[in-house]
Amino acid sequence: MRAKKLVATAALCLGAGPGLFGQGKPAPNVLRRPGETTVFCFSTNRGKTVSLCEGPKGAYLVYRFGTAAKVELQYPAVLDASSWRKFTYWAYQRGGGLANAGMEDYRLSFKNGGAEYELTDRTEAYLTSTKEEDYRREVGLNVVANGKSLGITGREASANGDLSLSDKQRKRVKLAEEE
Fold it and tell me: What pTM was estimated for this model as a whole?
């Protein structure tokens, strides 16, 4: 039983929501365009969707926030091969399950208009009330602008995909060590 926790922060308030991975309905791919592939998306309690999509044949990487009726933020505006290097990726993995406090922590960030955005996807081992090992996943978005920080917790049950990018995708984004 492996679940992941996703945390994403957006410029607008996303409500936190309880839920267990695998319960509920995945976020609809309402912000995905024809030909794109969803890398990672989730819903908020306020009816918004956070979405990270890859263009046809890996042509670009794009972040979108909003609803099917209105995309409130798309980054970057120009969707071409240079878009990949506008995102910075950070990953941490510690195996070993509960005995070693096993966890996976993935983050993808970008800067836009003076604000810093960071999508998060974190899974960690924990002990259930029946003393069994299980995994907890958190997804969300963090936004820092004008010295203020806003954390938006995604609805775990709505998470679709994850931020554990493939080797091919990792080679196209900036890695945190490069900054």
Answer: 0.80
CA pair distance 5, 37, nearest whole angstrom:
21
Instruction: Say which range, 9-13, 39-43, 50-54, 70-74, has the weakest mean pLDDT.
Output: 9-13
Rounded to an integer, what distance in angstroms lies between the CA atom of residue 106 and that of residue 60?
20
How distant, in Å, are the alpha carbons of 43, 60, 148, 179 from that of 83? 24, 6, 26, 17
pLDDT score recorded for residue 131: 79
Burial of 48: CB neighbours in 10 Å, binned 0-12, 13-18, 19+: buried
Phi, psi dihedrals of residue 102, rounded to the nearest 5°: -55, 140
Cα angle: 117, vertex 121, 126; to 5 degrees = 140
Residue ranges of alpha helices (H) inside the chain are 167-172
